[in-house]
């Protein structure tokens, strides 16, 4: 089977489990090893990288367990030392950092990992492989000739002028279900008072909540929603290219920039093989494969299709990400968020 066939087959025939989808990329040659990835990066954006890696390691088959960022974290911890995962990939930077901080990762020092900028790795145990903006997205038909808001303040003004027009027409992350959604909300909350006022507006307009960027973008493309808030740039770029009726905005007041992160499990049955895939992800060919699949390569910011027009707020890969994950702090934050976002009759 040719390379395209190997890529399409697992896309068409995923293995569905009770908790997640699994995708298997068979080894191009006689199988010698199987690598297991737990991934919160959509498989269609990851598969070209994995196919390209298999050309360098043709005896490797790759099993991808596709989870959302919160599910990935919780499943890995529940499995503990019995986890089959070799490599964990997630955009929930805080949850990935906590796994490293709690001793669940192996270090990797290689030519590729040592070449990373200091802000793109943590203790040589956690490594960024993409870098992308967090965006607002609008359905042009839903705007009905209005200019899309360029900032959170402009969005808030639009919602307040015509509240009935936007009721149940907004989609954003459910931060109780999504790890990256919680990360983005906690980062927004540190930027000033506008976000709190925006949450109250969302709540009064019965916002639709989801745990998946692509599901929200699909709802926008179908006209089931008009406004998407805090969606991941790589998925947005692909959706805007496929659906000209969508327009994306990097907020001018500030644009959050997020890094997808990889770690090698301390319990990996195949740590050296996991390290080889990690090295390939960070190499020029691997970064090019990620870019061709619609992700934003870490080391090539010239590819950003939607360039921020105002201040950039890089979510830092530092211990500052950890305090909001304290169990009591997280519960308090989510409860306050739900109090703002959900009508009293619907709040749990």
Short overview:
This protein has 348 residues and is an alpha/beta fold.
CATH class identity of the largest domain:
Alpha Beta
CA gyration radius, whole angstroms: 20 Å
Helices, by number, come to 15
Question: H/E element string?
Answer: HEEEHEHEHEHEEHHHEHHEHEHEEHHEH
Q: Structural class, please? A: alpha/beta
| CATH topology label of the largest domain | D-Maltodextrin-Binding Protein, domain 2
- Provide the domain count: 2
Shape: globular
Uncertain runs with pLDDT below 50, 5 residues or more?
Answer: 1-18, 344-348
Distance between the termini: 51 Å
Helix content: 40-55%
Strand content: 15-25%
What does this structure look like?
The protein is α/β, with parallel strands linked by helices. It has 2 domains: about 5-130 and about 255-305, D-Maltodextrin-Binding Protein, domain 2 (3-Layer(aba) Sandwich); about 135-255 and about 305-340, 3-Layer(aba) Sandwich (D-Maltodextrin-Binding Protein, domain 2). Helix content is about 40%, strand content about 20%. The protein contains 15 helices and 14 strands. The chain has helices at about 5-10, 45-55, 70-80, 95-100, 110-115, 140-145, 150-160, 165, 180-190, 195-205, 215-220, 235-240, 270-280, 285-290, 325-340, and strands spanning about 15, 20-25, 35-40, 60-65, 85-90, 105, 120, 125-140, 170-175, 210, 225-230, 245-250, 255-265, 310-315. Strands 1, 2, 3, 4, 5, 6, 7, 8, 9, 10, 11, 12, 13 and 14 form a 14-stranded mixed sheet that branches. A hairpin with a 4-residue loop joins strand 1 (about 15) and strand 2 (about 20-25). Helix 1 (about 5-10) runs antiparallel to helix 2 (about 45-55), helix 7 packs parallel to helix 10 and helix 13 crosses helix 14 (about 285-290). The longest helix has 15 residues, at about 325-340. The protein is globular, with a radius of gyration of 20 Å. It starts with a helix and ends in a 7-residue tail after the last helix. It holds the Pfam family SBP_bac_11. This is ABC transporter substrate-binding protein. Keywords: Signal.
């Amino acid at each position: 089977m040719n390379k395209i066939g190997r890529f399409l087959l697992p896309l068409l025939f995923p293995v569905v489990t009770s908790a997640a989808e699994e995708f298997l990329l068979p080894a191009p040659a006689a199988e010698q090893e199987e690598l297991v990835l737990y991934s919160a990066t959509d498989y269609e954006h990851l598969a070209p990288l994995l196919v390209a890696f298999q050309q360098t390691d043709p005896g490797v088959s790759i099993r991808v367990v596709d989870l959302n960022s919160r599910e990935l974290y919780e499943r890995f911890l529940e499995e503990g030392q019995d986890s089959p995962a070799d490599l964990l990939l997630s955009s929930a930077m805080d949850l990935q950092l906590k796994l490293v901080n709690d001793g669940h990762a192996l270090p990797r020092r290689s030519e590729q990992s040592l070449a990373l900028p200091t802000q793109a790795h943590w203790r040589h145990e956690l490594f960024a492989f993409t870098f992308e903006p967090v965006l607002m997205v609008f359905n042009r038909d839903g705007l009905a000739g209005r200019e899309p808001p360029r900032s959170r303040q402009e969005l808030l003004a639009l919602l307040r002028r015509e509240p009935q027009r936007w009721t149940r027409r907004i989609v954003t992350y459910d931060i109780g279900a999504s790890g990256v959604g919680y990360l983005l909300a906690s980062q927004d909350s540190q930027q000033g008072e506008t976000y709190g006022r925006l949450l109250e507006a969302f709540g009064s307009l019965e916002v639709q909540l989801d745990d998946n960027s692509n599901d929200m973008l699909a709802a926008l493309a179908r006209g089931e929603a008009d406004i998407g808030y805090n969606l991941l740039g790589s998925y947005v770029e692909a959706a805007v290219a496929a659906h000209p009726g969508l327009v994306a905005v990097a907020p001018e007041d500030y644009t959050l920039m997020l890094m997808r992160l990889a770690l090698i499990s301390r319990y990996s049955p195949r740590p050296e093989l996991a390290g080889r895939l990690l090295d390939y992800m960070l190499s020029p060919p691997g970064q090019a494969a990620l870019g061709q699949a619609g992700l934003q390569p870490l080391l090539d910011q010239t590819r950003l299709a939607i360039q921020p027009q105002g201040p950039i707020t890089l979510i830092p890969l530092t211990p500052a990400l950890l305090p909001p994950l304290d169990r009591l702090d997280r519960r308090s934050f989510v409860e306050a968020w739900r109090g703002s976002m959900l009508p009293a009759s619907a709040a749990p």
